[in-house]
Design a protein that fits this description.
The chain is of the alpha/beta class. It has eleven helices and twelve strands. It has helices at about 15-25, 40-50, 65-70, 75-80, 100-110, 130-140, 155-165, 225-230, 240-245, 250-255, 265-275; strands at about 1-10, 30-35, 55-60, 75, 85-90, 95-100, 125, 145-150, 170, 185-190, 210-215, 235. The structure holds NADP nicotinamide-adenine-dinucleotide phosphate (NAP). NADP nicotinamide-adenine-dinucleotide phosphate binds near residues 152, 218 and 243.
Length: about 280
C-alpha cells in the first residue's frame, strides 16, 4: 500500500484528504492519504523521516511551506519562485519539493476562461502573500508583460516584485478600485471575502468587457467580488478549481496515476463546504 498525507499546524480544516481519497477510490488504488498535525519545530524531522515512516510523500500547508522548502534537497522552479513548497516526494532518498499552486491556478483559469490572454494587457493582482507569488509567477511564465501588484502593505508588494523581477510592478493599494478598466485579468489573492468578511472595493462600472475576474477565496464559492463582476457581465473564475487542480501533480507523483478534476470531485468538496 502506498501512503501519503498532508501536514500543517493546525490541520483539521484541510480538504486534501477528501480530494485524494476521492481519487484513490475512483482509480481503485491500494493507497491511503491522511492528515497529520505537525508543529513547526518538528516539521523538518518529519520530512526527513518520510521513508522510515512508510510515506511516499506529503502535501504541506500553513505554516510549514517555508520549512518544507528549506528542508528539501531538490527544488523545482515552481517552489524556487515562491520560496515555499506544498508538495513533497522522494527520489533516490532525496527530499524533492514543488509548489503546485501556480499549476492549479493557471490550469483552472485556462479551462474556465479560455482566451483570457487576448491582448497585451496587464494583469492586476490584489495581495502579495504566498498565493500571490505563485500566481504572479504563473502569469510571468505565461508571457504576460505587465503584472501589477496592489497590496495593503506596499513593502511586501515591492519585495515580491524584486524577487520575481521581469514585468512586475507595484501600485498603491488606494488606486485599486478601477483596475478592471485596464487589466485583462484581475485576481484577488487577499483573504478579503473569506466567509463573507470585508469588501475589496473594486468598481466594475467602466470595466473592459473582456476582463476576467478571479478570486482564490472559495468559502463562499461565489464571493461578493465574483457576484459583483458577474452582475456587470464579466467572466469569473472561482477559487475551488485552483484547490482541486493543485492536488493533481502530487497524486501523480505518489500514486502513479494522473487524476482528473471532474464535476463529481467538485461536488464532493462543495458538499463538504456546505455549499448549495
Ligand atoms: N484556492 C486555493 O487553492 C488557495 C490556495 C492558496 C491560498 N488560498 C487563499 O488565498 C488567501 C491568501 O493566502 P496566502 O497564503 O497568500 O496568505 P498570506 O500570505 O497570509 O497573505 C494574505 C494577503 O491578504 C492581505 N490582507 C489580509 N487582510 C487584509 C485586509 N484586511 N485588507 C487588505 N489586505 C489584506 C495581506 O496583505 P498584507 O501584506 O498587507 O498583510 C496579504 O497580501 C487565503 O484566503 C487562502 O485561503 C486559496
Amino acid at each position: 500500500m502506498i501512503r501519503a498525507c498532508v501536514i500543517g499546524w493546525p490541520i483539521e480544516h484541510s480538504r486534501s484528504p477528501l480530494i485524494h481519497g476521492h481519487w484513490l477510490t475512483t482509480y481503485r488504488i491500494d493507497g491511503s492519504y491522511g492528515k497529520t498535525a505537525v508543529q513547526p519545530e518538528a516539521a523538518a524531522d518529519f520530512l526527513r523521516s518520510l521513508s522510515s515512516n512508510g510515506l511516499a510523500g506529503c502535501n504541506v500547508t500553513v505554516p510549514l511551506k517555508e520549512i518544507a522548502f528549506a528542508t528539501a534537497g531538490r527544488i523545482e522552479d515552481s517552489a524556487l519562485a515562491v520560496k515555499a513548497a506544498n508538495t513533497i516526494w522522494l527520489e533516490d532518498a532525496v527530499i524533492c519539493a514543488a509548489n503546485t499552486d501556480t499549476y492549479g491556478f493557471m490550469t483552472h483559469l485556462e479551462l474556465t476562461a479560455p482566451g483570457w490572454q487576448n491582448s497585451a494587457s496587464p494583469v492586476a493582482i490584489l495581495g502579495a502573500g504566498g498565493a500571490a507569488r505563485a500566481i504572479a509567477y504563473g502569469f510571468q511564465q505565461a508571457g504576460v508583460e505587465e503584472i501589477v501588484i496592489f497590496n495593503r502593505t506596499r513593502e511586501r508588494a515591492e519585495a515580491l516584485c524584486q524577487d520575481l523581477g521581469k514585468g512586475l510592478r507595484t501600485a498603491d493599494w488606494s488606486k485599486r478600485a478601477n483596475c478592471a478598466d485596464w487589466a485583462c485579468v484581475v485576481v484577488n489573492t487577499t483573504t478579503i471575502g473569506m466567509k463573507g468578511a470585508g469588501h475589496l472595493g473594486l468598481d466594475f462600472a467602466s470595466a473592459r468587457p473582456d476582463c476576467v475576474v478571479a478570486d482564490i477565496v472559495y468559502v463562499p464559492l461565489e464571493t461578493s467580488l465574483l457576484k459583483d463582476a458577474h452582475a456587470h457581465g464579466l467572466r469569473t473564475v472561482d477559487g475551488l478549481g485552483m484547490l482541486l487542480h493543485q492536488a493533481v501533480p502530487g497524486f501523480e507523483r505518489w500514486f502513479g496515476v494522473r487524476p482528473e478534476v471532474t464535476p463529481a470531485l467538485r461536488r464532493v468538496v462543495l458538499d463538504d463546504l456546505g455549499a448549495q
